[in-house]
Amino acid sequence: MSTSFHLTSYDYYSSRNDMEIISNIVDALKKILEEDKKQAQPLFLKTSDNLILNIARMVVQEKKKTFLIGITGESASGKTVFVDNTIKACVKSKEEGIYTVIRCDDYYKDTSKELKEAGSYEELFKTGFSFDTPDVIDLELMKEHLIQLKQGKTITSPKYDFVTCESHKDGDIKKPAKVVLTEGLYVLNEGVRDIMDVKVYVYTPLEVIKERWYTRAESRGKTGAAADLQFQDVNKTAQKYIRPTYQIADAVINGMVSQEYIQEITDNIFNALKNIDY
């Protein structure tokens, strides 16, 4: 028994109309990237061949689907700055439910007991303890929360104290949204990256990372030998766990661009998507 598929005039029109809209979105995004390339410090250092087309298809053909963007990079590379300035573009819209942010840093496991027993960060690091390997973060819980958000469920993320190393289960309530941005050291690692719709890597030269890292470490109570010991570990573990994800990223972002320029580009992208006639 054979079956055949008959395309109605409505289906044909709808499909053809979608393709025209997708083509318009692709053209608009390509123009933005072409202008970006002309800058002394462009935001986009690399994009995969199909990135723009895949984004356009998801925007047009999967309107009800949650769009999950994973953003990684070395410690102090500029991940949080990129996300925070992308959010500023999102919030200019009056619509609710546009974005939710899940930060990998919130999912650090509680190590306050280990810190108290060691007596100081310096002594803790001398034992070989590392804050910069995937096993000190509850990636399983983070992935579970991301999947729940994609399913339209509300979650409560934990909250981590970088001074005391305490993890508080009752952190922030995160609601499902059209776009879920998740950023952190290990969001593109194996076991997590498979659920991402777009994978982004933030690249910043090591000398800049080092300067930023020491400034932030001081604000978290780590100075002197303790800071030196941890930064040595940060550099070593980045080579093993983080830098390889550069190769599988859909887009590589420049961590050296100004906050103002990040906002300008993200504004342009959002405006391009909103101005397309659906």
Describe this structure in words.
This protein has nine helices and eight strands. The chain is of the alpha/beta class and 278 residues long. The strands form two sheets. Strands 1-8-7-2-6-3 form a six-stranded mixed sheet, with helices on both faces. Strands 4-5 form a two-stranded antiparallel ribbon. Helix 1 packs antiparallel against helix 9. The radius of gyration is 21 Å and the shape is globular.
Indicate the radius of gyration in whole angstroms. Answer: 21 Å
The helix fraction, in percent, is 40-55%
How much strand?
15-25%
- SSE run: HEHEHEHHHEEEEHHEH
Q: What's the number of extended β-strand segments?
A: 8
Give a quick account of the main beta sheet: strands, pairing sense, barrel closure: 6 strands, mixed
Strand neighbour order, sheet with most strands: 1-8-7-2-6-3
Helix/strand-derived class?
alpha/beta
Indicate the overall shape.
globular
Number of helices: 9
Overall mean confidence score, pLDDT: 88
Give the termini separation. 40 Å
| Low-confidence spans | 1-7, 9-13
